[in-house]
Amino acid sequence: MADRSAIALNSVTMSYSDNTLFRDVSLQLAPGSFHFLTGPSGAGKTTLIKLCYGELQPTEGRVTLFDEDTGHMDRDAIARLRRRIGVVHQDCRFIDHLSVAENVLLPVTVSGGNVEAARTDMSELMNWVGLNALSDHRPPELSGGERQRAALARAVILSPDIILADEPTGNVDWEMSLKILGLLIELNLLGKTVLCATHDMSLIRQAKTRVSTRVLRLRDGAVELAGAEL
């Protein structure tokens, strides 16, 4: 049976000590949808994304991934579920003594997958992100935009159903931002669910000319669906 929702938050509250980031948040991301998450710095965008792949559990409420309640799952079950989710972190860390290709392969290695089969497809994947010529380089040799594209390749190496990208264009120029956006749009057109946190309204407007998107605005402790003014 097909998943009714890729990600759903039901009356979710997230608090740290006496600080409540957001309260009573409910949202649902349908399979194959493209959502942007925006809001001021410190509003809780990264925290919300961590909830969306089971890294964090809500203080109150319920998070379901592929219709499964993460609050009722042990660490092994969440780890298995994460194989269906690719995450591009804001700080996209790598193991510097490994090549770019070896870093991209890490999710396959860690999950016990078929590394040799993944190596066979590596050239196509690295070509897709425009890094084929840099496969044997080390991460410190890459520019900011190249690191972000390598992080995206690593996120999709297991062919996940969901892509979560936390400010993937935050530290690159406009031309590179458009390249990264184009890759995310391609993934969405292949049927992947995409949630991208960004503060760049120009990027959101650019995406809207190419693919159907919805914008979630996180501010003042609540999530609202942004209107057509964007």
Explained architecture:
The protein has 7 helices and 10 strands. It has 230 residues and is of the alpha/beta class. It has a domain at 1-84 and 164-171 and 197-230: P-loop containing nucleotide triphosphate hydrolases (Rossmann fold, 3-Layer(aba) Sandwich), CATH 3.40.50. The strands form 2 sheets. Strands 6-7-8-3-9-10 form a 6-stranded mixed sheet, sandwiched between helices. A 4-stranded antiparallel sheet has the order 2-1-4-5, with no helix packed on it. A hairpin with a 2-residue loop joins strand 1 (7-16) and strand 2 (19-29). The N and C termini lie far apart (36 Å).
Compile the SSE list and pairings:
Layout: E1 7-16, E2 19-29, E3 34-38, H1 45-51, E4 60-65, E5 68-69, H2 75-82, E6 85-88, H3 100-110, H4 115-128, H5 144-156, E7 162-166, H6 174-189, E8 193-197, H7 201-208, E9 214-219, E10 222-225
Parallel strand pairs: 3-8, 3-9, 6-7, 7-8
Antiparallel strand pairs: 1-2, 1-4, 4-5, 9-10
